[in-house]
Amino acid sequence: MCKSITDKIINNITLILVSPLVPENIGLVSRVLKNTGFSNLYLVSPALTPKSFEVAKRARDILEKAKVFNTLKEAIASSHFVLGTTRRKREYKFIYNFKDILPYILSLAKKKEVSILFGKENFGLSKEEVDLCDSLFYLPANPEFPSYNLAFAVGIVCYQIFVHLNGITQLSYLDLAKKKEIDNLFLFINEGLRKLGWKENELKSTIFSLRRIFLRTYLTKSEVRLLKKIFLSLKSL
Asked: Can you spell out the DSSP letters for 186-221?
C-alpha cells in the first residue's frame, strides 16, 4: 500500500472520546495518537483541564487541535461510518473482534470518513450512544478483568491500524514465496503423509488445516525451504 493511500486512510479516521472523566487519560490518548500517526481527535463533553495538556507533553499539538462538542450527534455529523467499542458482548448481537473488522474499516477509510468511539471510563458507551453506531467491536481481554483503561484501549486500536498499514508496506522488502512454491510445499507434505499410510480423508482435512495455519502469515522462500527440511527429517524417523 503506497504512502499516499496510507495517509488518506489515517486522515479519514477520527478517534472520539465520549464524556471522558479523567483529565490525564485525555492527555495520554493524545500521546497515543501522536505515536501512531493519527491527528484527528474529537472530544464530547470532556473533563479537559490543564493536567490533560501537561500529560500530553510533546503531543500537546494534537490536544490543542482537538475539536470539542457538546453532544455525540454533533461529533459524528460528518461521519460516513461510526464504530463503537464495548466490552458487553452478550448484550449485542452484532459485535466484532476489532482484528476481524479492521480490514473492512480500512477499506471504508480509503474514501469515507470513519469515526471510532470510546465511552467514559466507568461505564463505556450508553445505550443511546450505542444506537448511534453503525457497528460495534470489542478488544479481547481476560474474562475476569475485561475492562481496559481508556488510553490503553485507544492505544490498542491505533497500534493495530498502524501495524496493519505499515506491515503491508514492509512486505515488499521480504523475499516472499510465490504461490507455486507454497503449492509445491503442500504437495510435498501430502505425498510424505500418504507414504506413511495416511488415508485420503485424513490427508484432505490435514492439508486444509495446515494451509490455514501457514497462510495466516506471509511465508518467505527461506521459510518454505525450512518447512520442507523439517518434514523431510520427520519422514526419516
From this structure: HHHHHHHHHHTT--HHHHHHHHHHHHHHHTTS--BH
